[in-house]
């Protein structure tokens, strides 16, 4: 860590909402903060459609901190809830020594959360999957608190159920399948009571998987062979020869999810991959056959007032890899 000079400590800085014209400066901050450039197009994919993509702190010399968020809509017992997913939390390396409550890093977070998340705010709650360091800092400052666990689950491809192919057929999802996606989303949200489910309609699948600038995904529709009626959808990301297949998303009623997993395993094996892995919360895993391994990979954190609601009403998070911004 660089040592701060007296001039740097005393330099005036201010907070304001980021705007589209800040993109190049924020990409430069990302590179200096994380030691690597953000992939081409990813910033636009996350933020181009927002009027307030994040809170930044700046001096006369440039931007020194940023606290970003992506709007997400959740469904709880068929009611829509607006939320914001925290992402791209970063501070210039030379400013990392200033972690006081009134420092630029703290103030970007405080201002963003106090203005955007809570009762009668644009978003009912903020949530995210922070690093261990940021999670500890967030709990210490009261920004957010742990609410659930992300598990990394692994199924060996050899666990394929071959007889399923006699009863079900699979095809890639096409851009003309919006009605199918929306119908399955309607069924899924109606059959998972007391679960906080991110919206998984056709607009989401189009944005998250078809329009992602960095990764290639394939989404499949599973139908009953004799009726040709779609029963579920799943999305895979192939990490290439010598690597594994990743299960990004599942869409359908709970009783169909094991069939979707088995179909994903069949595709994994046919592609020459030995394992299918995923990230998911326990609520998702409970609906699936037991994996070979399941270990904690991250926490799910939420603003404290909404965690109290989750605990009081005994709600469950329904999250998978596709609900992160980095898979």
Automatic annotation (TrEMBL):
Classification via Gene3D superfamilies: 3.40.630.30
Record's keyword terms, sorted: Transferase
GO molecular function: transferase activity
Superkingdom to which the source organism belongs: Bacteria
Protein's UniProt name: Acetyltransferase (GNAT) domain-containing protein
Organism: Nitrosomonas marina
């Amino acid at each position: 860590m660089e040592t701060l000079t007296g001039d740097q400590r005393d330099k005036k800085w201010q907070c304001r909402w980021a705007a589209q014209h800040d993109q190049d400066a924020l990409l430069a901050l990302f590179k200096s903060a994380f030691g690597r450039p953000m992939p081409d197009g990813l910033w636009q994919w996350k933020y181009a459609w927002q009027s307030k993509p994040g809170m930044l702190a700046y001096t006369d010399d440039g931007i020194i901190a940023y606290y970003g968020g992506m709007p997400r809509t959740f469904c709880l017992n068929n009611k829509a809830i607006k939320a914001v997913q925290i992402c791209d939390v970063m501070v210039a390396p030379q400013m990392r020594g200033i972690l006081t409550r009134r420092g630029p890093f703290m103030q970007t977070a405080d201002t963003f959360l106090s203005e955007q998340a809570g009762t009668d705010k644009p978003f009912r709650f903020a949530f995210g999957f922070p690093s261990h360091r940021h999670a500890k800092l967030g709990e210490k400052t009261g920004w957010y608190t742990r609410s659930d666990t992300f598990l990394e689950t692994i199924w060996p491809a050899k666990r394929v159920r071959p007889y399923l192919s006699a009863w079900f057929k699979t095809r890639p999802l096409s851009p003309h399948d919006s009605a199918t996606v929306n119908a399955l989303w309607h069924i899924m949200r109606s059959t998972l009571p007391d679960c906080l489910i991110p919206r998984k309609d056709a607009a989401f699948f189009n944005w998250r998987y078809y329009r992602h600038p960095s990764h290639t995904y394939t989404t499949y529709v599973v139908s009953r062979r004799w009726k040709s009626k779609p029963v579920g959808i799943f999305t895979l990301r192939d990490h290439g020869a010598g690597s594994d297949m990743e299960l990004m998303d599942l869409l359908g009623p709970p009783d169909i999810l094991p069939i979707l997993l088995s179909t994903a395993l069949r595709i994994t094996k046919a592609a020459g991959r030995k394992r299918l892995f995923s990230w998911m919360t326990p609520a998702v895993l409970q609906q699936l056959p037991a994996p070979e391994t399941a270990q904690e990979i991250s926490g799910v954190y939420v603003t404290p007032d909404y965690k109290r609601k989750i605990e009081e009403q005994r709600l469950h998070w329904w999250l998978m890899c596709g609900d992160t911004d980095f898979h």
